Structure formats: structure tokens, C-alpha cells
Amino acid sequence: MAATLAEIAQALGARAEGDLSISVTGASEPSTAGADQIALAMSEKYASGLAQGKARAALLWEGADWTAYGLEAAVFVARPRLAMAGLSKAFDAGPEIAPGVHPMAVIDPTAEIGAGAAIGPFVVIGRGVKIGVNARIASHVSIAEGSTIGDNALILQGVRICHHVSIGDDFIANPGAVIGGDGFSFVTPEESGVEEIRKTLGQRDEIREQHWTRIHSLGTVEIAENVEIGANATVDRGTIRATRIGRGTKIDNLVHIGHNVEVGEDCLLCGQVGVAGSSRIGDRVVLAGQVGVSDNIFVGDDVIAGGGTKIFTNAPKGRVLLGSPAMKMETHVEAQKNIRRLGRLFAQVAELRETVTKLGQKG
């Protein structure tokens, strides 16, 4: 896929100078860029690599003197990562999925497949499924009965979409994602040890034999428009009501969303996040890697939780959290400083005790 610098600048809404008829087929780091690639030197600290590469043109920061680097043209960007989003989209051809339905796909005759769909080999689509227009479904995907998927979906290898799941337009599912598996819900005939310690906060009167009985998942999963699910992520169906993912939310690899969870709009859930059952996540929430959210709590709008944070209680909107248990980031940072001072503090206390003891002996 080739594009001229003029086309790239127009796509990015960016200013450009030099020979804008130069055509490039891809992008590269400055030191390894070929003559047919645009070099990505959007900060001055990367500019030194331009002399090592062979790029004729580069994406540069505003104010850069492109002629000083021996370039023939340049495109200037004010926000590098946003420019990367536009540039990467321009050069991403996506996975190769042949138009039409592959002869080795199995599609129930009652399924409705939208115009322009591309469905790869070993795909299985069940009874009453509805697939929107221009859907692209890679090999070994299964979509169970009664599910609905909107327009322009991209569903990659090995994704499992279980029965009666509802998904909006512009959906992306990366390899191995599972949407709509049963929730992890079990109960004991008598009060379980878990229920007891929830009440007593750790005290157990008696440890006794217990057996788990399955609570079946009668709910579903509802995913709004423009949602992306990462590789091997899982979204469990609800027990009675639906598990819901809001518009524009992005979910990373290996994230687990438990049954009955509601995730708001434009959230970012990074790798290995776990959200336990029946919790609610507000809009624009960012949960960094390995954040854990306890069950039946609420995380307010615009909360940001740093990596490894464990949220056990409701989090007010706009709060920035860190640590386990979660606390205000500035409080956590101060607490960590105090922990590092403990050794010196203990030594000072021991010294004071020795001094007091000696004064007592003299008295």
C-alpha cells in the first residue's frame, strides 16, 4: 500500500513541506528506514537516527529544520501519538480474508450475512445469527445461535462468541477472545466459609465440608459500538441481566470481565485486569495492567488506577488510585516513602531507648 506525502499530510490534517509527490509504502524508525519509507522522528531525541537511515521524508515535530537532516520533504505533527494512529491506519492493510464465504465455512441456513462480508475457512455460524455489512471474520471463529453483530466487524482467528450475544458496529475482536461464556457463580446449600468470613472479616467458628452448586447464566452480553476486545480476553454473560460494555471502550489482552459487570463508555482496560461480578465501571475509566476490581462495587467516572492496584471499595469519580488496597496516588507515594524510612526510624528508636536506659541507671 503506497501513499504520497501529500495524501499522508491530508489524512493527518498536518502541515507538510518539500516534495510532496514522494510516494512511500510504509513507516519505520529513522535509523532503519528505507528510501520507500517515511521515517518517524516526531521528537528531537530521535532525529539523530535520520543520518543512519535512507529515508527521503520524515514525520517531524513542529519547528524542526527538515533540510538540515538531508531530507527531501517532511510532515509536521503537534501530537505524535495521535499522528501515529492516523499513519498506522493508513498503512495497515489488515488480515487477508478473501471476499465472500469460504467453502469450508459452516453457516446455518437461517443465519443472515450482510453484504460485502468476508468469512474465512472453518468458521461456524449458528442458527439465527445476524452479521452486519462488510464484516470480516477470520478462520476458526465460532458464533453461536441468536447472536447479532453490527456492521464493519473484524473478528480474528479463534474468537468464540457464545449464544444470544449482541454486539454493535465497528467491533474488533483479537485472536482467542471469548465473549458470552458462563459466569463463575456457585452456591452451597448451607452458609459457605466465604459467606461467613465476609461477615466476620476472618473469624471462622467451624470449618465444615461444603459442596458447590452451579448457578446457571441466563443473561447475555451486550457490547455497544466501536469496542475492541484483546487476545484471549473473556467477557462472561450475566446471571439474569446482561453484562454490558459501553461504546468506545477498549479491552486489552488477558482481561477478564465477570458476570453482570457494567463497563461504561470510552474506558481503557489494560492487560490482565480483572473485574469481579456485578461491579460497575463508569465512563472514561483507565485501569492499568493487573488492576483488580472486587465484586459488587462502583468505580466512578474518570477514575485512573495505576498498575497492580487492587480496588476493594467504591472509588469516587475522578480519583487517581494506586496500591493494594487502593488509595489516593499521592497517599500511596507518601506511604512508600515512609516504609523506606522505617529501618532508619527503628535504629533511632533503639538508640533513644539505649540512651534513656543509661540515664535511668545513672539516676
Short description:
This protein is α/β, with parallel strands linked by helices and 363 residues long. The chain contains four helices and 40 strands. The protein is flat and about 90 Å long.
Which structural traits does this protein have?
363 residues; alpha/beta; Udp-n-acetylmuramoylalanyl-d-glutamate--2,6- Diaminopimelate Ligase, Chain: A, domain 1; 10-stranded parallel sheet; 4 helices; 40 strands; 27% strand
Descriptive report:
With 363 residues, this protein is α/β, with parallel strands linked by helices. Helix content is 17%, strand content 27%. It contains four helices and 40 strands. The strands form six sheets. A twelve-stranded mixed sheet has the order 8-11-14-17-20-25-28-31-34-37-39-40, with helices on one face. The chain has a ten-stranded parallel sheet with strand order 9-12-15-18-21-26-29-32-35-38, with no helix packed on it. The chain has a nine-stranded parallel sheet with strand order 10-13-16-19-24-27-30-33-36, with no helix packed on it. The longest helix has 34 residues, at 329-362. The radius of gyration is 28 Å and the shape is flat. The N and C termini lie far apart (91 Å).
